[in-house]
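Exercise 7b. Backbone tokens:
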């Protein structure tokens, strides 16, 4: 496999030679903010994150406007609900250490320098976060992006640049394109990034059936292109299922492709140190590029690409969402850094589920909306997943995200409610009452997968 890694590294170096002829990226000034006293330093004296606490309830109990109830003093009435549809799997967003660190950063620096990271917004705090993320995933380097969506599109923009900048003419010839094999259930950010590559004639994209390794093997075996890439989510957000990582590693050894995974739903959750599915199986060295997000279990906002140092330079030089977006605000970066103080992540969740996502497929959009209505009426904020997040015939009975703040009592109540829902749903699926209920129900918002 070393030869494949070397091949891609050489392609990256050649592309960089054309993009950055004067080594501009290497000699960018490293922006450093004013030194603070120990009392002012937002990262000083951070307490250890050792598991759930009373602060967890801050975002567990929410209120939802009820458009049917009479208004009071001109304001819509509200119903209290338990939130079971968020991505904050570890509830880090409300931890006192996170609040304190981000508040101190705001008081000291406001939002920090406001510009693209390549101009003046990439501070020592951004670099510290990148270093710990790289270390967590056992990579040389890391690039932090404003969102998880931007992380995937920035990487794929850089990947496409390899075909363009190593082409003999203005557009890559057919044999110079990159063959990309993508799981059918990959996140929208991957899909959009691949469409961008296709539009620029940089890639030939093949989509294999969900987690179907035989189909993937056939597609790769029949592909004549030399430059091959396989990209997949490690945990599929609409299903709650893990990708067959060990099988993918075996295929990597057989076909010698560049292996890219999106750890959006497993980073910080899976593995003793929060290193995701790669850490669980001990296969970090078999994964070439790891894309992740800070917006879910990280409890903040942002994304990252963990990779080699050469790849990180290419993402900074060609990743358009990175180049042309204002860098993440300093309080967000500081808050995201706090997770580094967490103890064993598996112990923080306090529940036996292997995946933080539980998904129940009911089929039609009407059925999913009815199921969501049923749960909301019983005080549980559980939202239906509808197109375009899923296929029209594969609507989910509400995506439920499990995090450390959900007590076993709440879990038992939810199970009972779903049991009643199944019984009621079975009785009513063939009646007009179901459609009447759906038409009369006003969802507070339509849920779509976040990056």
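Sequence design result:
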């Amino acid at each position: 496999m070393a030869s494949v890694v070397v091949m891609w590294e050489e392609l990256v170096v050649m592309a960089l030679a054309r993009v950055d002829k004067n080594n501009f990226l290497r000699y960018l000034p490293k922006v450093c903010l004013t030194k603070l006293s120990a009392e002012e330093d937002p990262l000083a004296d951070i307490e250890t994150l050792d598991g759930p606490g009373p602060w967890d309830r801050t975002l567990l109990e929410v209120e939802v406007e009820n458009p049917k109830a009479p208004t009071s003093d001109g304001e819509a009435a509200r119903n209290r609900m338990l939130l079971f549809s968020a991505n904050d799997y570890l509830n880090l967003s409300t931890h006192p250490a996170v609040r304190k660190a981000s508040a101190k950063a705001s008081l000291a620096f406001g939002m920090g320098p406001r510009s693209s990271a390549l101009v003046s917004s990439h501070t020592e705090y951004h670099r510290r976060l990148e270093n710990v993320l790289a270390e967590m995933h056992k990579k040389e380097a890391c690039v932090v992006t404003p969102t998880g969506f931007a992380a995937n599109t920035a990487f794929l923009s850089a990947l496409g640049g390899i075909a363009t900048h190593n082409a003999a003419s203005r557009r890559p010839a057919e044999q110079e394109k990159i063959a990309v094999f993508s799981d059918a259930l990959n996140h929208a950010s991957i899909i959009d990034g691949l469409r961008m590559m296709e539009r620029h004639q940089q890639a030939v994209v093949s989509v294999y059936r969900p987690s179907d390794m035989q189909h993937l093997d056939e597609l790769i075996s029949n592909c004549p292109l030399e430059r091959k890439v396989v990209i997949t989510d490690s945990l599929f957000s609409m299903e709650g299922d893990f990708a067959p990582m060990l099988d993918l590693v075996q295929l990597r050894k057989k076909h010698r492709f560049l292996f890219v995974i999106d750890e959006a739903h497993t980073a910080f959750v899976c593995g003793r140190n929060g290193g995701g599915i790669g850490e669980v199986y001990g296969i970090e060295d078999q994964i070439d590029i790891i894309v992740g997000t800070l917006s879910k279990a990280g409890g903040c906002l942002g994304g990252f690409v963990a990779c080699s140092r050469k790849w990180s330079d290419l993402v900074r030089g060609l990743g358009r969402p990175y180049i042309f977006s204002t860098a993440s605000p300093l309080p967000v970066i500081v808050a995201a850094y706090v997770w580094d103080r967490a103890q064993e992540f598996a112990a923080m969740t306090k529940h036996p589920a292997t995946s933080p996502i539980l998904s129940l497929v009911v089929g039609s959009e009407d059925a999913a909306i009815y199921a969501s209505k049923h749960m909301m009426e019983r005080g549980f904020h559980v939202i239906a997943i509808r197109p375009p997040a899923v296929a029209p015939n594969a609507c989910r009975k509400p995506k439920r995200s499990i995090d450390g703040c959900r007590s076993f009592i709440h879990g038992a109540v939810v199970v009972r409610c779903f049991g009643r829902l199944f019984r009621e749903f079975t009785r009513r699926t063939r009646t007009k009452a179901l459609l009447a209920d759906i038409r009369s129900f006003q969802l507070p918002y339509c849920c779509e997968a976040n990056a």
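Instructor comment: The chain has a mean pLDDT of 81. Residues 53 and 302 are 25 Å apart (CA to CA).
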